[in-house]
Each structure stands twice: as structure tokens, then as C-alpha cells.
């Protein structure tokens, strides 16, 4: 079987690579490394050729680094450089290789580190009919939890101190 990883060398993707390599080794799976190189906004045309070529080159270099890391761990790899948006590219690759799992970082290059999910994991969680593993980047934990606590009252509602109290009639027994 196989595991598909979206790899763009962003901090989230780097940590996701470590998990993917470990899982692929444990399960004896092939690791499919995907880079989606569709230009932002989908602009195409001869005048943008240099731009496309540069994106493809960034992708090839990123995938080479990931292949080295996987090979060093004894994991077999397949590389897919796909001309599509990241979420679509990952879904296609997962279909093609019948992946048991799609792995992504929770964010990419975005400076908005307080956001919980980048757009790729968000779309995959909605669209994929296969399991999706979202791996937070190393230095994400504390700042994100603080941001979520400040931004979202619903997170607080789920916290222990907000748990529903027993109905009045049962309260004396329960307390
Ligand atoms: N061009 C891409 N090719 C392959 N995977 C990608 C690409 N862009 C993003 N990803 C995957 O999606 C994760 C989240 O990135 P993204 O959705 O772009 O977040 P952000 O919105 O913060 O840039 C990355 O860690 C990576 O695993
Ligand atoms: Mg991005």
C-alpha cells in the first residue's frame, strides 16, 4: 500500500515528512511524494513560462530532499510533480496510488501562524474519502493555542470548567 505526502519544504511539511517516513517504514508502504506546481491564481501563457519553470524547479528540489530522507530510512519512494492546485493534486495522487492515508502539514508558508489550518488541509478534510493526517509544525503549539483561546469562544465551551452542570433536581446528589 502507499502513503501520499504533500511536500513543499514548508515547516509543516518538513515535520509531516518525518511522520510519513516513520509510518511508511512501520507499515512497509511506498511513500508517494507530491509537489503541486500550478501557479497561484492559475495564470497561464507563454509570457509566464519562466515563472512555471521556476516553480517546477522548486518542486523538484523539494522532492529530491524528501527522497533522500526517505531513502536513508529504507523507505521506497515515488515522486509526483503535478500541474494542479495542492489539494486536487494530492487527491489525484491518492487515487492513482490507492493511498491508505494523505499526510500534510497544518500550514505552509503562511505568516498567519495563528490560523489553525492552511487551505490545503482544510480542503482535504472536507473532500477526501481517505483518512487525512494533519501534522503541526514544531514551533506551532503554544502560539496557536493562545490564538485559538483568544479567537474562539466555542473552544472554551468545550473546556472542563464550562461542562454542563447536572439539572437542579439532581444537583444536591451530584455535588
Ligand atoms: N504546492 C504544494 N505541493 C504539495 N503540498 C503542498 C503544497 N502547498 C501546500 N502543501 C501541503 O499543505 C500543507 C499546508 O499548506 P497550505 O495549505 O499551503 O498552508 P498555508 O495556507 O499556511 O500556506 C503543507 O504543509 C504541505 O503539506
Ligand atoms: Mg500555501
Overview of the molecule:
- It is a single chain.
- The chain is α/β, with parallel strands linked by helices and 175 residues long.
- The protein has a single domain, classed as HUPs (Rossmann fold).
- 48% of the residues lie in helices and 17% in strands.
- A 5-stranded parallel beta sheet has the order 3-2-1-4-5, with helices on both faces.
- Helix 3 packs across helix 4.
- It is globular, with a radius of gyration of 20 Å.
- It starts with a strand and ends with a helix.
- 28% of the residues are buried.
- About 3% of the residues have low confidence.
- The structure holds adenosine-5'-diphosphate and magnesium ion (MG).
- Magnesium ion binds next to loops.
Which properties best describe this structure?
single chain, 175 residues, alpha/beta, Rossmann fold, 48% helix, globular, binds magnesium ion
Question: How are the SSEs ordered, and which strands pair?
Answer:
Blueprint: E1 2-6, H1 11-27, E2 30-36, H2 49-72, E3 77-82, H3 86-96, E4 99-105, H4 119-127, E5 132-135, H5 141-151, H6 153-157, H7 168-174
Parallel strand pairs: 1-2, 1-4, 2-3, 4-5
Helix pairs in contact: 3-4
Bound molecules: adenosine-5'-diphosphate and magnesium ion (MG).
